[in-house]
Amino acid sequence: MPSVTPAARAELAPTGRLRVGLNYSNFLLVSKRAPDPTGVAPDLSRELAKRLGVDVEFVGYENAGLAADGATTGAWDVAFIGAEPARAAEIAFTAAYAEIEATYLVPPGSPIRTIDEVDRPGVRIATTARAAYTLYLERTLRHAALCYAEGLQGSFDLFMRDQLDVLAGLTARHLQEIERLAGARILDGRFTTIRQALGTPKHRPAAAAYLAAFTEEIKSSGLVAELIERHGARGLRVAPPWRGD
């Protein structure tokens, strides 16, 4: 168990409480909002606060983009959020503690059979604005067009309403959506793996160092695996140990 230095405690709980940013739209990490947040991320938050010897205060957001914005306003001290280069200017990320696969869903009768066939001229992809997998697609797609909606349900509704060609999202979510759309298919494989990490606002070096050690310890001790099992977070898997590369 990593030791807590006075500097780390001061940077992680400058108000005397550990303020934790949660992305409520990620159902694999936050399974219930009220009366108290429940899930893998809330339980890890409570464990971190216990080790610091402070109380935890949850700061909830409707999507990952809004959670990331909280780093610039000082709204939270630690956030459970996907580590993306677009967010790294304001947030110091740990290595991943868990990973989530993202892939595509296509409607009944779609001629698209593989992930490689998606990035073509004329293909329209429904996706969730500012999600980690959307940021990845913005960096990598060359031909297909992204069509944005707010939230996971919003992207599914857009996909259905506008009869778009592809729905981008978490594989675990697609497994639920396919039950509502007879004949739809989830494409094999993944277009990206989302690295779920702990982040703290930039320029808190002691906090970042402690969180890095904490992240590796909760993986190696089996805590992350235990919480995934306890909360039935199928589609979430423990990230491998950080190798420094």
Question: Overview of this structure, please?
Answer:
This protein has 245 residues and is an alpha/beta fold. Strands 1, 2, 3, 4, 5, 6, 7, 8, 9, 10 and 11 form an eleven-stranded mixed β-sheet that branches. The chain has two domains: 6-98 and 195-238, Periplasmic binding protein-like II (D-Maltodextrin-Binding Protein, domain 2); 99-192, 3-Layer(aba) Sandwich (D-Maltodextrin-Binding Protein, domain 2). It is 33% helix and 25% strand. It is elongated.
How many structural domains can be distinguished in the coordinates? 2
Biggest sheet character = 11 strands, mixed
Shape annotation = elongated
In CATH terms, the superfamily of the largest domain is: Periplasmic binding protein-like II
Distance between the termini: 23 Å
Say how many strands there are.
11
- Uncertain runs are none
CATH classification class of the largest domain = Alpha Beta
What is the beta-strand fraction?
Answer: 15-25%
CA radius of gyration: 18 Å
Fraction in helix: 25-40%
Task: Itemize the secondary structure elements and their pairings.
Layout: H1 6-12, E1 17-23, H2 40-52, E2 55-61, H3 64-73, E3 78-82, E4 91-93, E5 98-106, E6 124-128, H4 132-140, E7 145-149, H5 151-161, E8 166-170, H6 171-177, E9 185-186, E10 192-201, H7 205-220, H8 223-230, E11 236-238
Parallel strand pairs: 1-2, 1-3, 6-7, 6-8
Antiparallel strand pairs: 3-10, 4-10, 5-8, 5-9, 5-10, 5-11
